[in-house]
Design a protein that fits this description.
Largest sheet: none
Radius of gyration: 22 Å
Shape: globular
CATH class: Mainly Alpha
Strand content: under 5%
CATH topology: Cytochrome Bc1 Complex, Chain D, domain 2
Order of helices and strands: HHHHHHH
Helix content: 40-55%
CATH superfamily: Cytochrome c-like domain
Number of strands: 0
Length: about 140
Amino acid sequence: MRSIVRVVYAAGALAAGFCFVLSVPNATAQSTVLPTFTAAQAQRGEASYVSQCAQCHGRDLDNGEFAVPLKGPEFVQHWAGGRLDELFNHITQKMPPTNPGGLDLSTYVDVMAYILSQNGIAPSETELPADPAVLKSMAFPK
């Protein structure tokens, strides 16, 4: 009799746990998608990067003597899984250091497209938007 009670109790606990899991929002199921950018946008970003960023971050994005690398394992680990609006806000509010926020939003987003391309993300048919609300729905791939 005790073993039947234990089985019934275990089944009830399992069912309750299942219902609890179904009722708790899944944090990883947020509506984030992979970023999109075009090859042309990344090329524009490269030109802007060379003129605005390379002097600190280095021509290869990881060999500058005055700033952190913008490609490679350290950069990817820092931003992986993060929303692109966070990266966009960081760049637009702090770069370039001599004139934070001094570039137009399309230049910033083009540079972001270039940085994404240099971190192994493939271009697509859709440009990366300069709209923080849309960027909030995009995540830097893990």
